Give the backbone structure.
Amino acid sequence: MNKKLLFVTLAFLLVVYLFWVNLLFPLKEKAPLCQEVEVNIEGSEKSCSLLTAEQVIAEINAIDSIPLKKSITGFNLHHIEQQINRSNALIERCNLYFRSNGTLCVNIHTELPLFVLVVDNKSYFVNRKFQLTSTNQANALAIPLPVVYGNIPNYPPNNGSPKDNLKAKLRQQELFEAISYIINHPKWGYFFSDYYIDASQNLYLSGAVAGYVVEIGRTWTNIKQQLNNLDLFLTHAEPKFGPNAFTKLNLVVPGEVIATPRLLSLSKKAAESITIASPDEEIEEPLPQNNPENITQ
């Protein structure tokens, strides 16, 4: 009798123990499966037109394969967000998360690229952080953006010694900063849309609005002063010769603007030297020249 009572008591205590263990320490739920991917792209109409949901999914898969119909355990959302934010020039920020039903939600906020870089028949979007994202020619021409092309410093990258690579990278940074200054300028950003770098790394600006070519030269860190000189020159030259009087304006020599007349008939009228002056100084009056090919400022 005592043995039977002891057995019943132990069985009862075991049931109570299992009940409390299950109550205090419930079984860990099995991780849900990834059922589908939902991509939401936000931003301006122009910036959104450059990016598709298929491109976003392809970029995620290139970093880490989306676990469709598989457990979401081990899929590092934070790592993917960091990689996309660092590498894609069209994306200002992205956010990834899973819903309770297993849907992978990808929220993308786009930004309009600063310009298109074309080199060796390849096209890239470049944003304000100077991040590059490759694109095809059709997509690059989908919306009007400034175009930078020619002999770009540090392209292709890492093709020399570490010292040479660093030097080329700094030159590229100087170039992009100069172009960024022009594009964001309220006046010159409207004037110029094409930026060409020749084999000697001279920078040339042109555009349909400007109607002429501006040679900046190999030094790009003085772009602000060079454009101030150009503005001062045009302020005094255009009233005399008209807004479309020149084919080329050379700003390479500090403090000078060398202007090439568009028509030979203009060269007779424009046989003079215009010297840049500060705002409180006067512009020199016309001086006779033996050779009226150029107007030298």
